[in-house]
Amino acid sequence: MQNVLPAPEKTGLNLRTLHWAGFTGIVVLVLVTSGIGLPSVLVVALGVTGMATLVLSWLGIGRLAAGLPERRLYWIAVSWCVPLLAARPLFSGDINSYLAQGLIAAKGFDTYLVGPAEALGADSPVTLAVSHYWRDTPAPYGPAFVALARTIAGIAGDDLVPTVLLHRLLGLAGIALMAWALPRLARRAGVSPSIALWLALLNPLVLWHVVAGVHNDGLMVGLMVAGLELVLMGAARTGAARPALIAAGVIAVSAAANVKIVAVAALLFVGVDLFRRATPAGRVAVALGLPAGFAAVTVAISLGSGLGFGWVRVLSGVSGQVHSWMAPTNELGFLVGGVGKLFGADLTDGAIKVFSLIGAILGLAVGARLLWLTYREKLHPLYGAGLTFAAMLVLGPVVQPWYLLWTVALLAVSLTTSRGRWILAGISALFGVLLPPANGGAVSLALGYLLAVGLIGGTLFVLKRKDLLPEIRFRKSRT
């Protein structure tokens, strides 16, 4: 039998309290970042306090998740998303890049060839709103997303408010697809659907970076998991429904890869699983059909959108132009560069390139090994794909907190041990408070986080003294 999160024997931990405490934390975050004129230190302190309140509430709900009906978790997800629909774009300015790329495409320029400064003008308000790192770079996204951004630009023009709202609708569509697919995938992998919904759908990273941050990773992940479910659903069927469902799944995952190419890794794993289970004739169909299906969808989107295949050219370079401080390979490069500076040598860029190359080679080796283990039935394909995304984060040249959603969505439905889930939850919680809700300089950030720690710690201390945070004892569960 599967391992699930332990069930509480007797506890004062109240689901309703946790639900609305998290909701309150979100409302606080939205209010203090709304531009009401608070000093930046207080914006950071109160914003981080709100974020931490949500994260702690989410962790508390995780202790109860195994026994919760799915509809209750859906209700919590909806109520937590609603306040964030009115929030300013938080945690990054990528939505400004989306706006610029949509306008570039709407004006007839090749968004895979020119950046905002060249296409829109260096003095354009839209260009100036884009991070200086990306003003001269072409779009790094697939044609499916750029076509959607172009459509939004055609509706909203250069007005940021409707642009944010329309892009949030895309994110919500991705979240809705996740809500449909996650419990179904979890059942296929022998995992509690409620636990999967808690760990992935209610994850703070979905709230912060898909709803509030308006990142296209939400749409990509939603299409990917929905497509995987359709493929696996088809694989379990017979008759005419089988190829139809598999084809629909391939189309959905391929569409996800045409938002962000990384989604193609998931298609490889379900492809290996289909190949393993097929007859000799069926293996030929799988080996030829899945790549052909992906290619056909990609060609249809690239040509049908009129954007062409320029996105293939920019796959390898745009996102890596900025050295992500969260990427372990870059950290090693920074370390070597720092040592080099002690001796008057500038080694940083060269070291980062070397470690990025090593990371890429190791990543390919890890992916190949995981594919082989999946073929040998040592790993569930969803688990293998989730571990591959994790390897991309550890070994890749660019890491952002929202990238963690790639692996969270698949590991949430395939991790069968309580310990593994809580490790993933702990990483999500850490990333859930890692980025500040507002910028204000190093001093404001440091003081803001210190104040937030004091507020949170003081509140927990008072609640503990008043016996409002009772000890929770858990019995082992064999179900």
Automatic annotation (TrEMBL):
Keyword Transferase tagged: yes
- Ranges annotated as spanning the membrane: 18-36, 42-61, 73-91, 165-183, 195-212, 243-272, 284-312, 354-375, 387-413, 444-463
Family recorded in the similarity comment: Belongs to the MptA/B family.
Q: Which residues form a coiled coil?
A: none
Could you state one GO cellular component term attached to this entry?
A: membrane
Q: What UniProt keywords apply to this chain's record, in alphabetical order?
A: Glycosyltransferase, Membrane, Transferase, Transmembrane, Transmembrane helix
Q: Does the keyword tRNA processing apply?
A: no
Primary localization class, coarse:
membrane
Query: Where found?
Result: Membrane
Return the protein name: DUF2029 domain-containing protein
Q: Which organism is it from?
A: Amycolatopsis orientalis
Q: Topology relative to the membrane, per the entry?
A: Multi-pass membrane protein
| GO MF term set | glycosyltransferase activity
